Amino acid sequence: MAVPKKRTSKSRKRKRKTVWAAKAQKIARKAFSQARSVLTGRSNSFYYTTNDDISK
């Protein structure tokens, strides 16, 4: 099994954690923006079904 040779410094650990959190933040922001555009009816980048289409 792989074992680290030396201890990881605090700053390196914090940098990695920040990058990881920033990726998640970017994805969350994108999803929120997309949801907002769907709710306002201004979305034209993708197709989706509405409840009216399903009931017909």
Automatic annotation (TrEMBL):
Q: Which UniProt keywords apply?
A: Plastid, Ribonucleoprotein, Ribosomal protein
The listed locations are:
Plastid, Chloroplast
Protein's name according to its UniProt entry: Large ribosomal subunit protein bL32c
Provenance organism = Lycopodium clavatum (Stag's-horn clubmoss)
- Cross-referenced InterPro entries: Ribosomal_bL32, Ribosomal_bL32_plant/cyanobact, Ribosomal_zn-bd
Q: Which NCBIfam families match?
A: rpmF_bact
Q: Name one GO molecular function term.
A: structural constituent of ribosome
Q: Where is this region: Disordered?
A: 1-20
What the entry lists under HAMAP family is as follows: Ribosomal_bL32 (MF_00340)
Entry's family note = Belongs to the bacterial ribosomal protein bL32 family.
Query: Which Gene Ontology terms of cellular component type are present?
Result: chloroplast; large ribosomal subunit
Tree of life domain: Eukaryota
Show the ranges annotated as biased composition (Basic residues): 1-18
One Gene Ontology biological process: translation
A Pfam family this protein belongs to? Ribosomal_L32p
